[in-house]
Amino acid sequence: MASKILIADDEQNIVISLEFLMKREGFDVSIAQDGQEAVEKIRAEKPDLVLLDVMMPKKSGFEVCQEVKADPALQSVRILMLTAKGRDTEVAKGLALGADAYMTKPFSTRELVERVRSMLAEG
Amino acid sequence: MLSAPLVVVISFAYLLLLFAVAYFGDRRADAGRSIIANPWTYALSMAVYCTAWTYFGSVGRAASGGVWFLPIYLGPTLAMTLAWVVILKMIRIAKTYRITSIADFIASRYGKSHLLGGLVTIITVVGIIPYIALQLKAISSGYAVLTGVHDQQFHPVTVTNWLQDSTLYVAVMLGIFTILFGARHLDATERHEGMVAAIAFESVVKLAAFLALGLFVTYGVYDGFGDIFGRVLENAELAGLLTLSGGGEAGYGGWFALTLLALLAVIVLPRQFQVAVVENVNEQHLRRAVWLFPLYLFLINIFVLPIAFGGLMHFGRGTVDPDTYVLSLPLSHEQHALALLAFVGGLSAATGMVIVETIAVSTMICNDLVMPLLLRTRRFSGSVQPDLTGLLLGIRRGAIVIVILLGYVYFRLAGEAHALVSIGLISFAAVAQFAPTMIGGMYWRGGTREGALAGLLAGFGVWAYTLMVPSVAKSGWIDPAVVEDGLFGIALLRPEELFGLTGLDNISHALFWSLAANIGFYVLVSLMRVPTGQEASQATLFVDVFKQERAAPSTFWRGSAEVRDLLPLVARFLGTAKTRLLFANYARARGLSGIEQLKADADLVHFAETQLAGAIGSASAHVMVSSVVQEEPLGLEEVMDILDEASQVRAYSHQLEQKSRELEAATEELRAANERLQELDRLKDDIMSSVTHELRTPLTSIRALSEMLLEDPKMALEDRMRFLGIVVSETERLTRLVNQVLDLAKIESGHAEWHNTDVDMRELVEHAVEATRQLFRDRGARLEVVLPDEPPRLLADHDRLLQVMLNLLSNAAKFVPKGEGRVRVTLSRDDDEIVVRVRDNGPGIAPEFMPYVFEKFRQGGDQRDRPQGTGLGLPISRQIIEHFGGRMWVESTAGEGATFAFALPLDYRPAESAAAAAMQ
Amino acid sequence: MRKGLAGQRLVAVFLCAVLLFNYPVLSLFDRPDPLFGLPTLHVFLFAVWAGVIAAIAWIVERGAR
Q: Three-class SS of residue B101?
């Protein structure tokens, strides 16, 4: 059975490209447009992995990450954070909050896919 | 009639009370809680001016001359109006250079001259000893009046046996008191707190006693002032006393002379110098004293005339000696207690004067007469000598005993002689001779040692010839022919009509000639040569004492010295422990850890000399210090050089101070600027971070889509077209972003180019509306435009304003609901500004978001529209509007649309055109 | 500056007092007929005296603040 992946990003065009990429790799893809929606969909769908943007309306990626990691029922959900802000502090903050991996935008599609696969394999 | 033992007991009890007050004052001073360190005590101690001569004598004088007793008090009142100017300067000079007597003051001013100090001391002794005798006489005759040892006219019957004379014992008590509280220990400042406390106490006693007597006579015996003066006015004989001429004497000239005499005396009398200058604790106390002391004089004189007239009317003219009215009036009314109180008042007036005057004179004798002589002998001029503090104290105490004994002896010998009776004013005239050299020395730099000597000698000589000689002659001690016919029978040399000058009373006459000779010789002889270096340097230190406060050389001295020589030298006169303490304090004040670190520079030499000056006088101190240091004598030229240097230093220090103030201000500015910079830095970081984010976001889509397109050549055409479309639009977004960031940076840094022309705002708005009409049409929005008939014009950059309008209109188009959008554009003109409003019916702006509307990268609205906006449109627009002196704002209620508006002032002149206008 | 002003005021009071306490102003009040039942000269001298003291007090105490 294909792994389930949730794409949470408010940038329409990024969502389009990630959705196409993940689908091409054979994953089951669902989409959230903001932080609130992302949390709801994670609880409802229990995806194997979330591609989580940091800068989102309503709830930031950090908040989403914190909520997910605090919920024992969602222990199996892997989180790969994506951010356009390249600062080290942001990376450190994301990892401290329990993100499993971190990638800076713009990313190489190949690397992203490899990272996603390796994370899913670990789980 | 009172019993003699009672009067004696009361008198000595009063003196013991004085001891107690003085003892208490000293204890408090030692404990650091001085009772004299307040302006009231200071002012009261100045009232030592009122002696027994005035206490008893004023009434006597009033009885014979009416208002003629007043100039003695009006003079001091006049002097005190100038005290805040003159006496303040004396205090500052005395404090700065540790001057402890008038002799020292004059000696120090004219080049630390032993000769001058000695001369001043001698004049003082000659002038003051009879005055002390007068006080003792007052006590003696007061005692006689009270105890009935007198004849019917209250003339005391002289006691022939000295040992039976209670006055001798009073004198002895006063000597003991003065030694105990005036020369108990050596002090560099020569201040005696206990003594001052006692003097202030005495002033209260004599004022209270005199007021009590005055109230008794005025309201007890008579029915108030009106009653007394009414009776006097009815009495033809007495009424004459109510006018100046009726008082006989010397007319308006004499009146002026007496006032001037008292004016000078209150400044230069040794006892006044002692209490007003030497014993001054705090310069600010003078502020209160300058009116309190005259007020005291005023109060103590209110009842003088009533008492005098009361006595005259009670006893009749020419019977009882008016000088005894103060005692005989209450006695004859059987008011014994009041008489006793009045006697105690007189006792306090006499003892106060004797004590202070003796201290002042003994200090002079010790420092300016005995010490210089001792220092001349070989024995004392070496540098390895034992402690001299004991010797110094011994001299001081010996001088006190001698002064008081001399006073007593003079009193016993002169007795009722004219030489004693008239001594009050004569004594004033003697000390008045110090005024020209003292006051001149404080304000005139040209005075020289010879000038001062000549002036003093001339003045003193004339005084002796015109006042002392007649007084002595009238006492029958020399041939009266000298007075009547002149010296050697030369009429022009008649002492009381010198050079044929008639029409003046003897005091005015003597005062005129002595002061004329004094000032004349002082000025003329001084002008005969330029001051020496030593004189010039001292002159500067005195005249410019208020300017010395900082950055001036404390001394004019050049040479070499050793601390190991200076310290023992000072210790010899002040004691080792005290000296080490003084030097240690000095070292600490200079930021050094101890005496060992002291360098024997000019300042230290000056410090040592100043400390010594307090104990042995400035002239002797100078001699002593010179004996251990190698001094290079300074010529006038060099002193002037130092002075120039000093004024340069002063100017330089002034500049430094200013610079330091400027530096402080600059530092403050820098700190503020730094804070601003840090704030800006933080903002810049935020903006960089935002810009980075805004750049990376479109790049993310572009890269991801491009990579997928590259990897998958078999991608469906539909997908391929869609992706390529996104890539293009994101590229456009990037381009826009880069352009706007650069644009904003240019505007903010002031490097933007502005092409100002005459802009027709109506045309501009229409243009913008036309350009965006398609946008609104696409969104199905209705656009309404309201324009004025008259086209408002202003000077601005047309393209920039168009940019603003397009930004506002495209924002509106972006936010209005699809299909039912309504946008209304209005252009209006107020008195002085043009206002443009763009109103939409979009979702409006949440209140919490309002403050951020114009901030960079703060976009509102629907994310799906994001690619079109960069988050920089509104910040740029606002910058443009503000560049033209206008303002931009937004009004909105969430859910009811928003109105973006800007206003531009009509009279705004862009910087370039303003500059151009100025050029023309 | 204030101290300088106080100094000038005191000098002015001094000059004024010298004027009032001497000829010829003094001669205006040097007359035998009484004023309010009191000797004219006496009243004048004490009044000026009190005035001078009040003026000094006002000047120096004011400057103290």
A: coil
| CB-CB neighbors (< 8 A) of B70 in chain C | 45
Cβ neighbours for B1, distance < 8 A, ≥ 6 positions apart: B147, B148, B331
This complex has an ipTM of: 0.93
pTM for the whole thing? 0.61
Token pair 């004599």: residue:
B206
Token couple for B669 = 């500015």
- pLDDT for position B433: 93
Residues 6+ apart with CB under 8 A from B8: B166
Contact C14 B255 (CB under 8 A): no
By Cβ distance, the residue of A21, A34, A55 closest to B704 is A21
Q: What pLDDT does B571 receive?
A: 78
Q: For the segment C7-50, what is each residue's pLDDT rounded down to a tens digit?
A: 888 888 899 988 888 878 888 777 777 777 788 888 888 999 99
| Residue whose entry in the numeric block shows the structure tokens 């656009």 | B783
DSSP 8-state symbol, B478: S
For residue C45, the distance in angstroms to the closest alpha carbon of chain B comes to 9
Note whether A96 and A110 are within 8 A (CB): no
Within 10 angstroms of residue B17's Cβ, the number of other Cβ atoms is 16
- Are the beta carbons of B708 and A109 separated by less than 8 Å? yes
Q: Which of C37, C50, C52 is closest, CB to CB, to B226?
A: C37
B821 in Cβ contact with B840 (< 8 Å)? yes
Q: Percent helix, strand, coil in chain B (nearest 5)?
A: 70, 5, 25
- Residues 6 or more apart whose Cβ sits within 8 Å of residue B782: B776, B821, B822, B823
C24-43 residues touching B, CB cutoff 8 A = 24, 26-27, 30-32, 34, 37-42
Best residue in C3, C13, C19, C22 to probe B by mutation, most B CBs within 10 Å?
C22
DSSP tag of A97: T
Residue B515, classified by CB atoms within 10 Å of its CB into exposed (0-12), middle (13-18) or buried (19+), is buried
What is the torsion angle, in degrees rounded to the nearest 10, for the CA atoms of residue B794, residue B798, residue B800 and residue B804? 70
Enumerate residues 493 to 532 of chain B having a beta carbon within 8 A of any beta carbon in chain A.
Answer: none
Chain C interface test: which of B231, B233, B237, B242 (most C C-beta within 10 Å): B242
d(Cα A120, Cα B258) in Å, to the nearest integer?
A: 120
Q: Are C45 and B259 a contacting pair at CB < 8 A?
A: no
CA-based end-to-end distance of chain A: 15
Per the CB < 8 Å rule, is A104 touching B723?
Answer: no
User: CB–CB of B700/A105 below 8 Å?
Assistant: yes
H helices of chain A, in order, are: 12-24, 35-45, 61-70, 88-96, 109-122
Residues of B (862-881) whose Cβ lies below 8 Å from A: 863-864, 866-867
Contact C42 B284 (CB under 8 A): no
Tokens standing for B592? 């050094």
> What residues contact A47, with CB distance under 8 A and at least 6 apart?
A4, A5, A6, A30, A41, A77
Q: Averaged in consecutive runs of 10 residues, what is the pLDDT profile of chain B (920 residues)? A: 78 86 82 77 90 85 83 91 88 84 88 86 88 84 76 53 68 81 66 84 92 91 85 78 68 85 90 89 86 93 89 81 84 86 89 87 86 71 61 85 87 69 81 92 88 93 87 77 73 76 80 92 89 79 70 53 75 78 82 74 78 76 72 59 58 71 82 85 76 84 89 86 89 86 81 82 86 85 84 83 87 82 86 86 78 71 50 84 86 82 79 45
Q: What is the distance between the alpha carbons of residues B432 and B463, in angstroms, rounded to a whole number? A: 10
Q: How far is B650 from chain A (nearest CA, A)?
A: 58
Q: What is the dihedral of CA B441, B446, B448, B452, to 10 degrees?
A: -50
- Closest by Cα among B358, B357, B351 to B396: B358
Q: Tokens for B817?
A: 């609901």
